[in-house]
Amino acid sequence: MFEILAERKILEARARGEFEALPGAGQPLDLDEFPLVPPEVRVAHRILKNSGCVPPEVAQLQEVNCVARSLANAVDDEARRRALRKLQALSLALAESGPPRRGGLQIEPRYYARIIDRFA
């Protein structure tokens, strides 16, 4: 319920133009900085990022995206079935790999089937 109210307030403020004159409006975001991370930890994050190290869940999500692309591009039924089985296994592993989190692959079964049908 809180999210619905917050979204409504944001939309109302946008309609009134309250976001138009904010500092940095229209400028790209600097996604390389970690403003909420203490400076001494920020350096370590930058080193890890520059060396290509990513958290396990990020690597799993990258693999899920790769398999989803192969599912979408599958040319025959057998390739589609293999990709679908792998996608299901990866989704399950990702869901079980840590605490429940918003935005992960926690998809209701009725929507999951529609997503898979869309790829097929």
Write up this protein:
- The protein has 120 residues and is mostly helical.
- It contains five helices and no strands.
- The longest helix has 20 residues, at 77-96.
- The two termini are 35 Å apart.
- Indicate the overall shape: extended
- List the uncertain runs: none
Rg, alpha carbons: 20 Å
Termini distance? Answer: 35 Å
Keywords:
5 helices, mainly alpha, 62% helix
What is this entry, summarized?
Helix content is 62%, strand content 0%. The chain has 5 helices and no strands. It has helices at 2-16, 39-50, 56-72, 77-96, 109-119.
Lay out the secondary structure.
Layout: H1 2-16, H2 39-50, H3 56-72, H4 77-96, H5 109-119
Helix pairs in contact: 3-4
